[in-house]
Design a protein that fits this description.
single chain; Arc Repressor Mutant, subunit A; Tetracycline Repressor, domain 2; 2 domains; 9 helices; transcription cis-regulatory region binding; Homeodomain-like_sf; HTH-type_TetR-like_transc_reg; DNA-binding transcription factor activity; Transcriptional regulator, TetR family
Amino acid sequence: MSCRHGGWERGRVDDGVTERSGSTAGGSREPAAPSGRRVSPRGGIDAVLRAAVSNFAGVGYHATSMRDIARDAGMTVATIYHHFSSKQEILQAIMASTMRDVIASTRRALVHAGGSPSEQLTALVTAWILFHTDRRAEALIGASELRNLDASGRRLVVALRDEQEAMFRDVVEHGIQRGEFATRYPVEAARAIINMGYSVASWYRVGAGVTPQELAARYCELALGVVRGPHPVAR
């Protein structure tokens, strides 16, 4: 998932079937926000989400129909509509839940980190990289499908991204205040570190010659290099 930026294009919903999105003569109703949905650890909702993740990551949001999701979830399209009002709502649920999961993971890492900014940044980056190697499909969807969220879904996901970015930025700024980091660009440094993690999901494969833990250690070294600022060239 990339950092927040402007100029998003609102996605056109195209499920390959007629959507039951509660449209009225006054216009289409926005799908209900997924944040209030209670997802059972078993049953239909999880099956729908797993099937949607597989299809969205494989061929993209627009190329996936509700029939594709229903087929891979082992149910009918009509059954999906008992759980989600539209393909758009499914996309929102995936992206929002993924962001909440990674925020929880990085927050736990930060709570258990040492007291120095370097230790805290190392803990954040480790959790960030491990998440993006373990949850590659969801991360790929987050990186590529933001433009296809409607206005309400985009506001929700962008707010969650801002929350995650603030966690990194606060650690970088704390390091600058302590004299441990020397970068003159804390906002850009935090975003660069975040984007390094996002990119991992696009190329990392199990058996690629480096374990997730080894990769995390390398990215921690890179992240610390970013925040420690330029070093004078030896003459």
